[in-house]
Amino acid sequence: MAAAPATDPRPLTGEPLSLDLLNTRWIQDGERQDLLTGLDGLRIWLAGNGLDAAHDGRFTADDATLRHLLTARDALAAVVDSPASADGVRRVDAVLGHGRIRATLRPEGPGEEPEFTDPAWGPAWLAARDYLTLRATAPDRIRACAHDACILHFFDTSRNGTRRWCSMALCGNRAKASRHYARTRTD
Predict the structure, then answer these.
(1) Whole-number Å distance between alpha carbons of 140 and 147
(2) Over 90: is that where the pLDDT of 2 sits?
(3) Which residue has the higher pLDDT, 57 or 148?
(4) How far apart (Å, rounded) are the C-alpha atoms in residues 153 and 16?
(5) Which long-range contacts (CB under 8 A, 24 or more apart) does 29-37 make?
(6) DSSP string, 82-113
(7) What's the chain's Rg over C-alpha atoms?
(8) Helix H segments across the chain?
């Protein structure tokens, strides 16, 4: 039995699956960090998104799953900031080629069940599929943090759609402090 995953070190979690996958890379103290450098980080990410064996028994943290997830992350990174990127579209579509939605009928009514060519593609496919859902429902709400030194992404759920920062406590306050410093230096 595997040990419980360590605590997720990322500054922003809980975003929709596709953006949460992108947010496995972040900047801390001026250095780029990457959660998915090995199986321990993969275990943390799977558990944090309810995709590990402890939650539904479908996905395990192995080399193939990590490799496919990194492929999906790179593909999503290519389209999130440039949605019309032909290369990014092709790469996301290639990930989506490893699964499909099967319509089902259950006692409680109609449903859908994802199926994968190989279970190791499951988390990667689910992240790519989530991006399609975000693009279909509110593409203008998929945002990159406005802070110059931040590479995180978020889905803007604010009422008026004007959220600019991944976190007001982190990047928002840093931007306010920078503006204040610039004003006081010129006075």
Answers:
(1) 18
(2) no
(3) 148
(4) 10
(5) 30/149, 32/151, 33/9, 35/8, 35/9, 35/10, 36/66, 36/69, 36/70, 36/73
(6) -TT-HHHHHHHHHHHTTEEEEEEEETTEEEEE
(7) 18
(8) 17-22, 39-48, 63-80, 86-96, 122-137, 173-186
Judge whether residue 70 has pLDDT over 80: yes
Distance CA 178, CA 66 (A): 38
The pLDDT score that the predictor gives to residue 180 is 46
pTM of the model: 0.88
Strand, helix or coil for residue 25? strand
Cα–Cα distance, 173 to 22 (Å, whole number):
23
As a whole number, mean pLDDT of residues 159-185 equals 72
Q: What's at 94, amino acid-wise?
A: A
Instruction: Find, among 165, 176, 175, the residue nearest to 11 by Cα.
Output: 165
